[in-house]
Design goal:
185 residues; mainly alpha; Hypothetical protein af1432
Amino acid sequence: MDSLESLMARRLSPKRYNHSLGVAQTAAELAESSGTDRQKARIAGLVHDYARELPTEQLVALARKLGVEDDISLACPELLHGPVGAHLIESELGIEDPEILLAVTSHTLGRRKMGKLEQIIYLADMIEPGRRYPGAERLRELAQSGLQSGILGALDHTLRFLLEAGKPIHIRTIEARNYLLMGGE
């Protein structure tokens, strides 16, 4: 794990690296309280933003090569860093665990039928201690009530933010919320 932390420290800006450390720690704590593998959560949290600081042109080119782009993500290319990052951590770091790869892929948009690790990374990304936006503390409180409450709160928060900002909403985020709201786990 130390070598992975060193690699991420070299790859990311100090601010993004500190965020990734916070996500890794928060993910490990959420994993422990929800009966999920703590080490997998820590690794996924650490590498979740592996592609976040790639230049936009490179991010879009890789997404097109992988066939993971769509109209909304091309309009908001930062949304592509999840699936592109998953591809890169597999090809460059040799991380092949399907749960970790899905968690990295889904951490920005979510998806219908997210597994526990995917939910943990989505939520940890929003509530790690360095996050200081309006509503972050409320999401931390919801997460204390359980993963289901936390992830629904996080999805709701994301949707409200996008609506208020007048930004497009990806169908995957809506599907993730609706699935959980209608009894999915």
